[in-house]
Specification:
It contains three helices and six strands; from the N terminus they run αααββββββ. By secondary structure, the protein is α+β, with helices and mostly antiparallel strands. The strands form two sheets. It has a four-stranded antiparallel β-sheet with strand order 3-2-1-6, covered by helices on one side. α1 runs antiparallel to α3.
Length: 121
């Protein structure tokens, strides 16, 4: 069983914490959308021990494909396919502190949520 097949099995069994967390932030995220993006990231051309070149990231409008740029000095930058630096996105999340929460009990937070082929699902 390859990396994607193992991760797909976890998602389809309803045991993926990442998928559940991402779906809480983006309720219209479907299993099919997630699995399609997961397949792409798991097809990263990097072999064992080599530096990864792909990630997927969560935004308010869906999952985006990200490219990892590895410098010879060890610095890694993560960018959109367009070349724009990945800075995450803002999401409205529950907030129990009334000093910070909006009237609906939530607060806007910025998250850099991304997933590589080597991350646990």
């Amino acid at each position: 069983m390859n990396n994607y097949e193992a991760k797909e099995k976890i998602v389809l069994a309803g045991k993926s914490k990442i998928f559940k967390n991402w779906q809480e932030l983006l309720p219209n995220l479907t299993e099919d959308m997630f699995l399609e993006s997961l397949r792409w990231v798991c097809e990263d051309p990097a072999k064992d021990g080599e530096k990864l070149t792909r990630e997927i990231g969560l935004t308010k409008i869906g999952i985006v494909k990200l490219i990892r740029h590895n410098s010879s000095s060890g610095l890694v930058t993560i960018r959109h396919e367009s070349g724009k630096l990945w800075s995450g996105d803002c999401f409205r999340v529950p907030c129990n502190n009334p000093d910070y929460a909006d009237a609906d009990g939530t607060i806007v937070q910025t998250f850099k949520l991304s997933l590589s082929a080597r991350d646990r699902i």
